[in-house]
Design a protein that fits this description.
There is one protein chain. The protein has about 240 residues and is an alpha/beta fold. The chain has helices spanning about 10-15, 15-30, 45-50, 55-65, 75-85, 95-100, 105-115, 135-140, 155-160, 185, 190-205, 215-225, 235-240, and strands spanning about 1-5, 30-35, 70-75, 105, 125-130, 165, 210, 235. Helices cover about 45% and strands about 10% of the residues. InterPro entries: Cys_rich_dom (IPR004017). This is L-lactate dehydrogenase complex protein LldE. GO terms for molecular function: oxidoreductase activity.
């Protein structure tokens, strides 16, 4: 299959190691990977702020960059969900529709398409898993705890395949971290309090690392950890799955 990787702009600018780990992991698993070099922001910040009409050029460019691939894979649940729900280009709607139905967050792709049941990864540390709202509630990468239904978690399944990794329990496994894109700017105090609560749950259970599928959420938690002078670090799940 022919797979393009879609790297969010904040990953490209602040956490390039996540994009590199995503590429290396997919190549280790035998995937033919392409990186469209003209890709930019997907337009999610404008849509989150109520100005989706300003993302027209982002939509046009996304279709131009990512048409013709079997799948588009991204290490970001929020950006993936934005494309699934909002990518429309009037003059190229057939191509946009194909992209919407074939864009996948990394753990979705590994679990649902490649059906990974073993990995050559090793990460001997205590890890807490933050399951982001966009991934869990939008992409259904894990079950919501308020539902009376069988539990599942695609990120947790993949982490269970990593040698030496100890996944810690959490009191509130699917609680929001408070980042919420532009929410953390408009409602700073609420966002910070939610983030502190999320961090406290991980620290209470002894996490050496906090991981997840959205670097935006992890960036929010990382800022709180740094201000608390904590030794606990954040790490994207792609980096763990590619470790060792």
């Amino acid at each position: 299959m022919k797979v393009a990787i879609f790297i969010p702009c904040y990953v490209d600018q602040f956490y390039p190691q996540v994009g590199i780990a995503t590429l290396q992991l997919l190549e280790k698993l035998g995937v033919e990977v392409y990186y469209p070099e003209k890709q930019t922001c997907c337009g999610q910040p404008m849509a989150n702020s109520g100005f989706e009409d300003l993302a027209t050029n982002c939509n046009n460019l996304f279709v131009e960059n990512f048409s013709g691939y079997d799948y588009i894979v991204s290490p970001s649940g929020s950006c993936t969900l934005h494309i699934k729900d909002h990518l429309h280009v009037e003059k190229r709607e057939a191509e946009a529709a194909h992209i919407r139905s074939h864009v996948l967050e990394l753990t979705e792709f590994l679990t649902d398409v490649l059906k990974i049941d073993k990995l050559p990864a090793r990460f001997p540390h205590k890890v807490g898993l933050h399951q982001s709202c966009h991934g869990q509630r939008g992409l259904h990468t894990s079950q919501m705890s308020e539902l009376i239904a069988p539990g599942f978690s695609k990120p947790q399944h993949l982490l269970s395949l990593v040698q030496g990794l100890e996944l810690i329990p959490l009191d509130r496994a699917d609680e929001c971290c408070g980042f919420g894109g532009t929410f953390c700017v408009g409602e700073e105090a609420v966002s910070v309090k939610m983030g502190k609560d999320r961090v406290a749950d991980h620290l209470h259970h002894g996490a050496a690392y906090i991981t997840g599928g959205d670097m935006s959420c992890l960036m929010h938690l990382e800022g709180i950890l740094r201000r608390q002078h904590s030794a606990t670090k954040v790490i994207h799940i792609a980096e763990i799955l590619n470790a060792g």
